[in-house]
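Predict structure. Chain length: 375.
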Amino acid sequence: MRLRLGMVGGGEGAFIGAVHRLAARMDDEFILVAGAFSSDWDNCRRTGASLQLDAQRCYGDFQQMAQQEAAREDGIQVVAIVTPNHLHAPAATAFLTAGIDVICDKPLCTSYQDALQLAETVRRSGRQLILTHNYSAYPLIREARSRVLAGELGELRFVEVEYLQEWLAQPLEQSGNKQAGWRAEPEKAGAGCIGDVGTHAWQLAQFVCGQLPVTISAELSSIIPGRRLDDDVRVQMRYANGARGRLWASQVACGHENGLRLRIYGSAGSLEFNQENPNQLWMRPHSAPAYCLTRGAASQYAENRALARVPAGHPEGYLEGFGQIYREAAQRLRHGPGAAPLLPGIESGLQGMAFIETARRSHDAGGQWTTLIVP
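Prediction complete.
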């Protein structure tokens, strides 16, 4: 039986809500039955009608939705929160307190203190909070992780991760662009580029490496004059074993559409993954020919090969990664916290917000090396 899903955000003019709805239906594990899709009631009503929902289950705000759905015998079992960042924590709190599990877009919230409070709410409620770091569910990212943790690269030496975009290279927030608008407001976004795409790069690097740095040095820049939040981020990292790392996230890097790239170097070899070519993983052993792993190839670990949804040679990436997050979310919601151990949860969200807070402290101190906050 499908899990009854609600949604907060994702109305007309939104982007990520439609992605979540597609992902939730990919394995037929969820059915969308209710929503508070917009603070604009007309928008919410139209969105609900377009999705063929019962008009009585379209709500003007998420507090009302949480209370009324929790009281229904056929109420939602889980809610997807796809709002701007400032509503993540209050919406998640409302549903967790009502006994409803949460799937939340990243970043977790707008401040580290809010993240700690939300983590405590999760603990007290006994419910699940799942974070949609979709890139960590790509089959070849899972393969990269398996190979690193199996020791194929030897001892970790260097980590290079970058997430480069160009879409904010002009001041779109001044021209009425909805997506750029809220991302440029500190009150709604909390953080700029570092929260929007920097947390993706951070989570991906640490997911594949299996470890966090112990100290970082950060520079957060606003390249576009008048922009109130960072749009370019440079972070250097040091790991416990002496390995070094570098993270560059930018939304003003002309010529890059969605350039998420990860390179990991060890004492026995290296690997490289480029999100814009997600069906290939390059392996470069020391003193041996480089080779390219393709998604679904027989040489993959069986558990990662099984993640492929389409035949070899066909493109697979962004939507399927989201679909895998929802597939594993269904497994965890049905079978408990021990299911789907690689699924990002509240711990991943806390680590992301701790990274942002540490980077800000380092930047404010002139890029001083700063010990990473460990939640």
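Summary: DSSP finds twelve helices and 14 strands in the chain.
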